[in-house]
Design brief:
single chain, 437 residues, alpha/beta, Quinone Oxidoreductase, Chain A, domain 1, Rossmann fold, 2 domains, 6-stranded antiparallel barrel, 6-stranded parallel beta sheet, 12 helices, globular, DUF2855
Length: 437
């Protein structure tokens, strides 16, 4: 009997329920279509983001389950009940009918948490840099643009003083940092660059959803604001902190100060910056609020990158008892790293539903689309990748522990990484990285 290929599938109703399904080898794929590549996942990260993709996979406007449907050859598996959770990282090209992409090339993008080969239809990104492609398969037409973007590393590797990513260095510091942090780093970058742009940048403020809603110059102004980062140990929050501290004229454009609240304050980076920063544990929240209010801000901006409901409530209470006339804006970025029940998720969505608090949701893909319309695609990526390279060189994301997994099956594979994530056994400063090949 031929060997089989393990596929990790997750229940769409209860994301904590998951299993391995075995497919027969590659014969069912057939000839590769024009303008397409056949690839196999090589290195991915499994983070709280993946829980978000599972939870919201069928939500209108998101449709993350569409990226990699359960293969038709998976007999007995209902695609309505089970799905393949996608993850960010690298894949190797097995075959290609795209002239500029050769077999064994390494491609960055959105890949299945599985070992089975997948076909992608790739077209060069319109007006984009060399090596950037857009996935155009009909079944992925409902995905937002961020999740259909792929980059061939041989043509788009960013220069870095530490090391670079190549087809032979998937366990290098650069590859691991990119796999674990780069997907959400863009969110922190865009918060600083487009949602709260500096006055001299010429960047038009973009409302956090990126759909063209109202977001005034006053909404975007941080000059008289104190910023509170909830879930400051998350990778998105670390990215936002670096961008505020190192990629902004703080003296001219604010904010007045940055309060970071996390369970792991000692792992956060320390910056050479004019921005006052205080990093505290959640049980020191009241002390932190007093510190932030000591700047006499006109406004408090809370960036919630995935804190617990308890932390949200305690911060809301501390602000409500200390502030009466001050404007409070909450930017919801991430969710707590847990599997939500329907009731818990409804409660999460309803947080900050208080008078005089404006709550907005960040949509990284939508903000990126608006930013590219303004600056042009090539300039957007040049500035984005330049900032990313500087952040990595400066070790601007702080300290992480890499927890390695290998393959799909068992406690040491994707299966084990998903269990650890669902059971909340991954430390706040730990990154689960899975090597497939």
């Amino acid at each position: 009997m031929p060997s089989t290929i393990p596929v990790h599938i997750v229940s769409k109703q209860n994301n904590a329920v998951h299993q391995i399904h075995h497919l027969l080898p590659d014969g069912t794929l057939g000839p590769l279509a024009p303008s397409s590549v056949r690839a196999r996942t090589a290195l991915i990260s499994v983070t709280s983001n993946n829980l978000t993709y599972a939870r919201g996979g069928a939500t209108p406007g998101l449709f993350w389950w569409d990226a990699y449907p359960v293969p038709s050859s998976a007999g007995g598996i209902s695609p309505e009940e089970w799905g393949i959770v996608p993850a960010w990282g690298y894949a190797r090209i097995i075959e290609s009918t795209v002239p500029s992409i050769t077999p064994d090339s390494l491609v960055w993008g959105f890949w299945p948490t599985s070992a089975h080969p997948v076909d992608l239809r790739l077209e060069p990104l319109a007006d984009g840099p060399a090596g950037h492609f857009c996935e155009t398969s009909p079944h992925r037409g409902r995905l937002m643009t961020l999740y259909n973007r792929y980059v061939v590393m041989a043509r788009a590797t960013v220069r870095c003083e530490t090391d670079t990513v190549s087809s032979t260095s998937l366990e290098s510091n650069r590859a691991v940092t990119t796999a674990t942090c780069r997907p959400v780093w863009e969110a922190g970058y865009l918060l600083n660059h487009s949602v709260f742009p500096t006055k001299g940048s010429g960047v038009k403020p973009v409302e956090p959803l990126g759909f063209g809603g109202l977001w005034s110059e006053e909404d975007a102004d941080l000059r008289d604001a104190a910023v509170v980062s909830l879930g400051a140990g998350t990778k998105t929050a670390r990215s936002f902190a670096w961008n505020l501290a190192r990629n902004r004229s703080v003296d001219a454009d604010g904010p007045l100060g940055l309060l970071q609240l996390t369970s792991v304050p000692g792992t956060l980076a320390k910056f050479d910056t004019g921005l006052p920063i205080k990093s505290l544990r959640y049980d020191e929240l009241k002390e932190g609020v007093e510190w932030a209010l000591g700047f006499n801000p006109r406004r408090i901006v809370v960036v919630d990158c995935g804190s617990s409901a308890k932390a949200v409530e305690e911060l809301a209470e501390a602000l409500s008892s200390s502030v009466e006339e001050m404007k409070v804006t909450v930017v919801a970025v991430g969710q707590e790293a847990k599997v939500y029940s329907d009731e818990e998720y409804k409660a999460h969505v309803a947080t900050w539903s208080r008078k005089a608090v404006t709550k907005v949701q960040l949509n990284t893909s939508g903000v990126a689309d608006r930013a590219k319309e303004t600056s042009g695609v090539v300039k957007y990526f040049e500035e984005l990748e330049g900032a990313w390279g500087r952040c990595v060189n400066e070790k601007g994301l702080g300290e992480f522990e890499t927890v390695w997994f290998h393959g799909v099956e068992g406690d040491k594979g994707v299966e084990g990484a998903w269990t650890a994530l669902c059971d909340r056994k991954m430390a706040a400063n730990a990154s689960a990285v899975v090597r497939m090949d």
